[in-house]
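STRUCTURE:
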């Protein structure tokens, strides 16, 4: 069965579409949606069945962690074991935006997304639809690029439809996304922040806020 496709105005998304998306997520559905970087695949991180289904859709054979989108800074507190001063500075400067921070995971973090790790990656999205969706969801959302492992990330809903339509419950079409890289990833679970991946947010901009180490 083909996924339902709902179109939105990328700059002024319809809250009713977000509300319908929340209903799908709460029922254990897997969706595709636009972010400020690429189209993402998502589900409720506290539904292990949905997370496993998403893992299979991506073609990930080994347990690999998924990052989470959150609605506000305070959303991370119950999911992490402490927040360093460096992490606080980075969040104050770059959230919402294309910066994923990797924290030490608390016992309340959804085990299904950790991939056997003791850390959890989170980001506050600046995409208008994501912000409305997460506000209504009142909880985190799994976010992984809408492509099979090893393939190019999707910038259009049409690309998502070709790759996943028969496997998803809902696709939110926000039009063609700009020419942007995936989010930059920084590990703040250690005593010093480590750059894991340079993406849409340049390393130079981050280095003006905190001193970075490299793996």
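SEQUENCE:
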């Amino acid at each position: 069965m083909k996924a339902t496709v709902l179109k939105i105005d990328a700059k002024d998304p319809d809250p009713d579409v977000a509300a319908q998306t929340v209903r799908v997520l709460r029922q254990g559905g897997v969706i595709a949606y636009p972010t400020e970087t690429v189209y993402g695949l998502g589900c409720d991180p506290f539904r292990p069945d949905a997370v496993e289904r998403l893992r299979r859709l991506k073609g990930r054979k080994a347990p690999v962690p998924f990052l989470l989108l959150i609605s506000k800074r305070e959303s991370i507190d119950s999911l992490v074991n402490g927040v360093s001063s460096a992490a606080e500075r980075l969040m104050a400067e770059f959230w919402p935006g294309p910066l994923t921070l990797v924290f030490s995971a608390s016992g309340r973090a959804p085990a299904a997304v950790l991939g056997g790790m003791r850390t959890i990656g989170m980001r506050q999205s600046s995409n208008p639809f994501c912000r409305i969706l997460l506000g209504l969801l009142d909880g985190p959302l799994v976010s992984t690029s809408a492509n099979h492992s090893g393939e190019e990330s999707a910038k259009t809903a049409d690309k998502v439809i070709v790759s996943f339509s028969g496997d998803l419950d809902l696709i939110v079409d926000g039009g063609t996304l700009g020419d942007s890289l995936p989010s930059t990833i920084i590990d703040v679970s250690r005593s010093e922040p480590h750059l894991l991946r340079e993406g849409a947010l340049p390393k130079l901009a981050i280095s003006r806020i905190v001193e970075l180490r490299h793996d």
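REMARK: The chain has a mean pLDDT of 93.
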